[in-house]
């Protein structure tokens, strides 16, 4: 994936920003769910982390991959586009729900048990905002508008997933994804099929991360941002800020290795480099901490 320095630096800046924003969003969300639990008695973290991990791997990775590969094989591109629209709408609903609740609770100091007109307005916006964003994204947005919404998409997915995992399950998830990414690119090569299918679709990664440079395509998908963010979030939320920073630095260095040292015209599994570097830097953190 070797590319020019300017593009590589821009990729790294955006990649780092996604990881940081995901951690901040996840942190605010945990505070929000604590307030909701106190006021309504609803427990938002009742799911077993290991059960949730299995769900992510099967329902969030293996099953969708199999379905899309099948649709690509039979050239059912319209069906793929419909599925992407539904997925985008669903994530935008989750994002809008959490964002508006954050604003209502922490900015306006609202009481969720109240029946005021302000709460009614916010409740309506939770349903209206995702539809507006989805229509804008698929019909009116230019490449930079889609870039912004894609960043929101990846930040939201990683932050929401982080809430129901813990450090152990996040480590297992990243280990599995790193191995899976290597196998899917170098052995089964089905990830190359998916990348080709999404090459003309901004949904798979922001336009900066999916462009041609000197006739060579540079592509970094949403999963390559979301999964590293999940691991960093868990250490940031469950352990301390410094360990989360080490996980972010490891991810950035892992991506840098591919961008600066990868061969031209050759596809590389980003997570196969990012994941191990996150593990290495977390190991370095604990070595420094306990020496």
Automatic annotation (TrEMBL):
It is a multi-pass membrane protein. GO terms for molecular function: aspartic endopeptidase activity, intramembrane cleaving. The chain crosses the membrane at residues 50-72, 79-106, 118-138, 150-183, 241-261, 268-288. Keywords: Membrane, Transmembrane, Transmembrane helix. GO terms for cellular component: endomembrane system; membrane. InterPro entries: Preselin/SPP, SPP. It is found in: Endomembrane system. Pfam families: SPP. Its main location: membrane. It comes from the Archaea. This is Uncharacterized protein.
């Amino acid at each position: 994936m070797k590319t020019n320095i300017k593009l590589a630096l821009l990729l790294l800046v955006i990649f780092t920003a996604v990881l940081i924003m995901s951690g901040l969003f996840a942190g605010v969300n945990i505070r929000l769910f604590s307030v909701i639990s106190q006021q309504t008695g609803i427990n938002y973290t009742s799911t077993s982390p290991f059960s949730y991990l299995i769900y992510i791997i099967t329902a969030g990775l293996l099953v969708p991959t199999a379905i899309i590969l099948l649709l690509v094989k039979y050239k059912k591109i319209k069906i793929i586009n419909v599925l992407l629209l539904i997925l985008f709408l669903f994530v935008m609903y989750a994002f809008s729900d959490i964002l508006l609740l954050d604003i209502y609770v922490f900015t306006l100091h609202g009481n969720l048990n109240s029946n005021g007109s302000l709460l009614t307005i916010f409740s309506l916006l939770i349903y209206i905002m995702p539809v507006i964003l989805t229509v804008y994204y698929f019909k009116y947005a230019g490449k930079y508008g889609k870039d912004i919404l894609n960043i929101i998409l990846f930040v939201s997915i990683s932050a929401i997933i982080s809430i129901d995992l813990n450090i152990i399950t996040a480590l297992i998830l990243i280990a599995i994804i790193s191995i899976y990414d290597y196998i899917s690119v170098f052995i089964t090569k089905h990830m190359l099929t998916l990348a080709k299918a999404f090459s003309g679709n901004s949904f798979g990664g922001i336009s900066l991360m999916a462009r041609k440079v000197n006739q060579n395509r540079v592509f970094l998908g949403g999963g390559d941002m979301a999964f590293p963010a999940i691991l960093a979030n868990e250490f940031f939320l469950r352990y301390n800020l410094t360990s989360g920073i080490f996980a972010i630095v490891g991810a950035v260095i892992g991506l840098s290795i591919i961008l600066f040292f990868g061969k031209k015209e050759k596809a590389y599994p980003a997570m196969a480099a990012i994941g191990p570097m996150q593990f290495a830097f977390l190991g370095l953190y604990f070595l420094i901490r306990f020496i």
